[in-house]
Each structure stands twice: as structure tokens, then as C-alpha cells.
Amino acid sequence: MKYLIIRENDIKWLDSYSLPPGAKMAVIEGTVNEAVPFMIRLKFPADYKIPPHCHPAIEHITVLHGTINMGIGEKLDLLKTNELPEGSVMIIQPNTYHFLWTKEESILQLHGVGPWEIAYFNKEEEPMKK
Q1: pTM of the predicted model over 0.90
Q2: Which CATH fold would you assign to the domain 12-129?
């Protein structure tokens, strides 16, 4: 394939099994469970939180809509976050615990090389265990 065009109306949002309930996920390119380049979008509702977690590979984040509040560490602390409005970019190195929360509906885009996995700091906070 020499190029790929995906319009906003073509994006198919699905529930994300690896994030707390309420998040939607759309795979734009690749597959997240293989060692290949990927691009995904995540849509979060207002007042949404993802507890501290990390990923085994570098994560490139671009905020497309709304504002994401990102923090680094092993405890979700709403006062220790960086506000990332639309257009902001954040790059998180592998195995760096981080968390996020939103005040409003927000969409971010991630890209990297898979597999994209989530390891929660507190294993009891894993959505699959709830």
C-alpha cells in the first residue's frame, strides 16, 4: 500500500477492554498486539480517570480534542499533573508509570511500535479484574 486515507466518518470506535469503562478505542493503522507500527485513537468521556500504568514501549501522544491532564508516578494525584490542551504532544519512555484524567470529553492519538500493552501499578485496578 502506497498510502492510506481515513476520514473522520470512517473511524470505528469500540469499547476498550484494557482501559476503565467509558473509554472508546479506534485502530487507525496496524495492530496493537504485534511488533509493528501502530496508530490508535482513544476517546475519553468527561470526568474520566486512568490509574497509574506503564507500557513496555515508547508512547507518542497527541491531544486532538479537549484537554488531557497527565501525571507521572505510581499514585493518581489530580494536583500533580500537566495540562495538555488540543495540539499538545507528550512522549513517554518505556516502563514509566503515568496516569491521566479529563474534565471534558477528550480524544488523543497514540503511535508507536507494538505490542501496545498496559501494566497497571495496582493490579486490582486492572479493568479486566473488575
Answers
A1: yes
A2: Jelly Rolls (2.60.120)
